[in-house]
Write a structure and sequence with these properties.
This protein has twelve helices and 13 strands. It has two domains: about 210 residues, Jelly Rolls; about 100 residues, Arc Repressor Mutant, subunit A (Orthogonal Bundle). The chain has a six-stranded antiparallel beta sheet with strand order 4-5-12-7-10-13. It has a five-stranded mixed beta sheet with strand order 1-6-11-8-9. A two-stranded antiparallel ribbon has the order 2-3. Helix 4 packs antiparallel against helix 5, helix 6 packs across helix 8 and helix 7 packs across helix 8. About 40% of the residues lie in helices and about 25% in strands.
């Protein structure tokens, strides 16, 4: 396995170092990497002062371990990752899968370290956006987005911006539209800049509609919450355990646990559990191997009617209609 230790920033000072770590070179806005390591495109662009985009569309020929240790704590990274294959992000005592169908959006404060492991044969299409914290406020104002407590939100001493989530279907289509363009040149650059602005704006609008949790997160907190997420996913067939049980498992007070879980995941533990249970139900329906009743029983819904009502509320369609439309 090839190990690469690197860093990012909202400037372009990381580009030559990353190319060197890969044993490659920089040509224009492209990072050229030896083809025995990976094939495809790595493209970077300064979108404006304080905002940098890094576009990746590659296939890995070797197992890679990328260790990200940022030098500057003044930016936030948005990582939209549509990997097909095996890839994980890990840190201090935690690891989770990133892929097209699992966690595919990570927002990680530059003060936090992370490792990225990807297996040979995996294909990654990703867009990484690095934005300086001190321009988030002006960016929000330009786009008529009201973010309460903005000064606390971007202050690393009071708050750490971090989120592990699934991108919206709108974002998925925006990225797919970008991918249809030939990489490089003025037209692609305009499309890339437009996409970057749209994605940042959409994310800020999303968090503006939710209760903002101003709280610093350290590596241990992050690993604990992700371990609880993994625990809930592992036991998705069962009933939801109580908040008290989960807080005890996390060795936190109930209030601290709920706040950190919501901050990192974007949902309360209960909503996170139910949404993933419903996503699994949808996947089981798509196999056409189980009846609605069998899935309802397997996932421990109270009864078929309750399952149908939750499914309809989440997906806008009943399980029965969903089956007919497949």
């Amino acid at each position: 396995m090839k190990t690469i230790e690197h860093y990012y920033s909202a400037d372009l000072d990381w580009v030559k170092n990353l190319a060197k770590q890969f044993g490659g070179k920089v040509e224009g806005n492209f990072i050229i990497v030896p083809e025995d390591m990976l094939t495809g495109t790595r493209y970077f662009l300064k979108c404006e002062e304080g905002i940098v985009a890094y576009y990746i569309d590659v296939e890995y020929k070797k197992n890679l371990h990328l260790i990200q240790k940022n030098i500057k704590p003044d930016f936030v990274g948005f990582y939209y990752n549509l990997t097909e294959g095996e890839a994980t992000v890990s840190g201090h005592n935690f690891m989770y899968n990133v892929s097209k169908w699992q966690y595919n959006l990570s927002v990680i404060d530059s003060t936090l370290e992370s490792d990225y492991n990807v297996k040979k044969g995996s294909k990654t299409f990703a867009l990484c956006i690095f934005i300086k914290k001190d321009i988030i406020e002006s960016f929000a104002q330009k786009n008529n987005i009201t973010l309460p407590h903005i000064n606390k939100l971007i202050d690393s001493k009071q708050n750490t911006m971090v989120r592990f989530d699934r991108m919206s279907s709108e974002t998925f289509h925006i990225l797919n539209d970008l991918r249809k363009n030939k990489v490089g040149g003025p037209i692609f650059n305009l499309n890339l800049i437009g996409t970057v602005h749209m994605l940042i704006s959409n994310y800020l609008k999303k968090i503006a509609t939710k209760r903002l949790i101003i709280q610093t997160v350290n590596q241990q907190d992050l690993s604990t919450i992700i371990s609880i997420q993994m625990y809930l996913l592992k036991n998705i067939d069962d009933h939801f355990p109580s908040i008290k049980q989960l807080a005890e498992r996390a060795n936190m007070s109930e209030s601290k646990f709920k706040n950190l879980f919501t901050k990192i995941t974007g949902n309360t533990p209960n909503v996170f559990f139910m949404e993933n249970k419903l996503s699994l139900a949808k996947e089981l329906l798509e196999t056409k191997q189980f009846t609605i009743s069998q899935i309802s029983n397997r996932l421990n819904f109270t009864n078929n009617s309750y399952f149908a009502s939750k499914f309809r509320k989440h997906f806008g369609i009943t399980p029965k209609t969903f089956i007919k439309q497949m």
